[in-house]
Amino acid sequence: MTWLGRPPRDQQLLGQQGERQALHYLQQQGLIHLESNFRRPFGEIDLILQEAQTLIFVEVRSRAKGRFGGAAASVTPAKQRRLKLAAKAYLQRFRQMPPCRFDVVAIDDGKIDWIKNVIEG
Length: 121
Hints:
By secondary structure, the chain is an alpha+beta fold. It is built from two helices and five strands; from the N terminus they run αβββαββ.
């Protein structure tokens, strides 16, 4: 896959691999995959899954090294705002608002940490 004719950077490849790894892990936990990479001009949601009747918006963060506070610490307040805006756009397709939450899957040096309900919606 290329971006505007250029090969993807190592960071992009790490992110894509992390999303695949997170999706596989979450499906093993019984979640149902609904959508990946839901994009709007103001934000993107990496994974959207369902657990019982609850929609789960998942931000996947991967770090090859545990520098700079690790993967979970990289979900900044600005990133959280963009996630919320994208989630609002996704939720417009529903007549009745389903229960939902925001989770983070942090992958540091290949180790997965699933952090549930991390962003106030």
